[in-house]
């Protein structure tokens, strides 16, 4: 299942959830403060890699570390 990144509007912390695609836009509860005021954010490395494709492919992803990013295949 893909990993989705969410940000909490209460404490502004980001967290990740592994969900099925059909659940991607469901309300996610903040892992830190348990607030339901969260929204999904688009993975930075996905949009960044998209933007830089063909320009600078090496080391262009700063938002994923190790194997945590399912979008860019790191
Ligand atoms: Zn929170």
TrEMBL record:
- Which residues are the signal sequence here? none
- In this protein, which residues make up the domain named Putative regulatory protein FmdB zinc ribbon? 1-43
Organism in which the protein naturally occurs: Flexilinea flocculi
- Ranges where the record places region Disordered: 50-74
Pfam families tied to this protein? Zn_ribbon_8 (PF09723)
Q: Where is the composition biased (Low complexity)?
A: 53-74
Q: What is this protein called?
A: Putative regulatory protein, FmdB family
